[in-house]
Design a protein that fits this description.
The chain is α/β, with parallel strands linked by helices. The protein is about 45% helix and about 15% strand. Strand 7, helix 12 and strand 8 form a beta-alpha-beta unit.
Length: about 375
């Protein structure tokens, strides 16, 4: 499952891979330079070794265009009659990224509850951001959806903030929500969620088995941004845009992404959800403004995740109350969050590893509260 350690590994991998690419490109542009050839051989050897031992390095190398750079270096070496060791290093490095053992499309089969069928999730490279990997905290909200009366779900319109791989949105749709939007502000995550949505369509609406669903998505020249006549869709949403709108008291201009549909500035939902959204104070404050803007009268918001720094949670709650949301924070145990259908926990860090442990945040509008059917100690 996704973890902060993945982010640190990806950052280191990106820096090292870019360094190796610079060396290889320098070699291609300097014919006959013995020192450049020596550095290229070393760079190719180190790249091949790193890629064979770490998916992060392999994915970063592919994202940085290493295969084409290695091919250019190999062609240059052949034309110059380079030494056998350099040719071998370049060939081995290229094979590690493009051969049979190279990284393939990463699809997970997730069964979070016996009440729902298996869900296929497409994961992206670490270079697409941590949101492109599956996080265990999303399982908690998946089970909340599964436990909701289908007659209630049929009237829900759901907005998933920071969708990442798109698991929550697809599960909400599977559990009967009438309209679901999976939103994110990162292009990499949006394309990953788009692929997950296509898998969902192939498996649960077109009746494909897992293998055929994956094959159909991989073979598709383009993937849709919405399925089921728009009942399930992927949209770009930058929380900072919503924050500016809230502070301006009116709609403000937002530069549209020509490649990715943007969520309408006036769209509101009966249920706003998200997992692992609080990563710094500015992000947390913008997220609170987005919750307030997107929550329909009588609706509810439900967020889950780790509190990496208490200041992030405090900033979020302060802004939520500023925008007239009622809030309730509850501590959660990791075993309560990320258990699969067989009751096994899925590798979450211990709560003690985070300053504020794990929490769920419940919210509704102070001027038009949700009917929770139970007593909740809102602030």
């Amino acid at each position: 499952l996704g973890d902060e350690a993945d982010l640190y590994e990806a950052m280191v991998a990106n820096e090292r891979v870019e360094g190796w690419m610079d060396v290889l490109q320098d070699y291609v542009g300097r014919p006959g330079d013995a020192s450049a050839a020596c550095r290229a051989k070393r760079a190719a050897q180190e790249l091949a070794e790193a890629a064979s031992q770490s998916t992060a390095y392999e994915e970063e190398a592919i994202a940085c265009g290493a295969p084409s750079t290695l091919e250019a270096a190999l062609r240059a070496s052949l034309s110059r009659g380079a030494e056998e060791k350099l040719l071998s290093a370049l060939s081995t490095s290229l094979a590690s990224l493009c051969g049979e053992g190279a990284a393939q499309v990463r699809v997970r089969s997730v069964r979070f509850s016996s009440a729902c069928p298996t869900v296929l999730v497409r994961e992206g490279a670490l270079g697409d951001g941590l949101g492109a990997r599956l996080w265990g905290s999303s399982f908690f909200l998946c089970r909340v959806f599964a436990a909701t009366d289908p007659r209630v779900m049929a009237h829900e319109t759901v907005l998933e903030l920071g969708t990442g791989v798109g698991l929550l949105g697809c599960v909400a749709s599977l559990c009967g929500a009438s309209h679901v939007v999976m939103s994110d502000g990162e292009r990499g995550a949006l394309h990953v969620a788009r692929a997950t949505m296509a898998l969902h369509q192939a498996k649960h609406r077109d009746g494909c088995d897992d293998e055929r669903a994956v094959a159909s998505v991989c073979a598709a020249a383009t993937l849709p941004w919405e399925v089921a006549e728009g009942a399930l869709c992927v949209r770009r949403l930058d929380w900072r845009d919503d924050r500016r709108r809230m502070e301006a008291g009116e709609a403000t201009h937002v530069d549209a992404d020509v490649d990715v549909p943007t969520l309408s500035p006036d769209a509101t939902f009966t249920w706003v959800v998200g997992s692992e959204l609080l990563y710094d104070v500015s992000c947390a404050e913008a997220c609170a403004a987005s919750c307030a803007r997107r929550l329909a009268p009588g609706g509810r918001a439900h967020l889950v995740g780790a509190v990496r720094d208490r200041a992030y949670l405090d900033g979020f709650l302060e802004q939520a109350r500023r925008w007239k949301l009622r809030t309730c924070v509850r501590a959660l145990d990791p075993e309560e969050i990320a258990a699969d259908a067989d009751g096994r926990t899925l590798g979450l860090r211990r709560a003690s590893e985070y300053e504020g442990g794990y929490v769920e945040i419940l919210m509704d509008r102070r001027d038009a509260p949700h009917d929770w059917h139970v007593a909740i100690p809102f602030e």
